[in-house]
Write a structure and sequence with these properties.
Layout (H helix, E strand, L loop, with lengths): L7 H7 L5 H21 L3 H4 L2 H17 L9 E6 L2 E6 L11 H7 L14
Antiparallel strand pairs: 1-2
Helix pairs in contact: 2-4
Length: about 120
């Protein structure tokens, strides 16, 4: 089992209360999201703060859980009643765990920093 950067309680505090079945799914997704960060951004594990890692993992899981299972894979949907039409475009139709560009910037903020050490004088 992969140690997660966030707990189900922390996810609920940042989002909303979860049912028992949602909590079980959230636990697995929190572990998967943490593993993704460890794999894709290994230096962030040591350079990012624990709060940053918790925040990003919770956001990744929230996005994945917002995908409605009945509509998995559906990218767009529309409904027409008489002369009225509604349409929807889903941002994460497959419920993928992904990192946004803003989150990526937080994870790589210390990458490429240069330290300068004065040798006297």
């Amino acid at each position: 089992m992969v140690e997660s950067f966030a707990t189900v309680d922390q996810l609920q505090a940042r989002w909303r209360p979860l049912t028992a079945s949602e909590s079980k799914r959230a636990q697995v997704l929190l572990e998967d999201a943490s593993d993704k960060i460890r794999t894709d951004y290994p230096s962030a594990v040591h350079s990012a703060t624990s709060t940053t890692l918790e925040r990003i993992v919770c956001q990744m899981v929230k996005r994945a859980m917002l995908a409605v299972e009945e509509r998995m894979g559906v990218r767009q949907m529309s409904q027409t009643t008489g002369s009225f039409a509604d349409s929807w475009t889903f941002t994460n139709p497959d419920g993928d765990l992904y990192i946004t560009s803003s989150e990526r910037a937080s994870l790589t903020a210390s990458d490429g920093l240069i330290s300068v050490i004065s040798l006297g004088g």
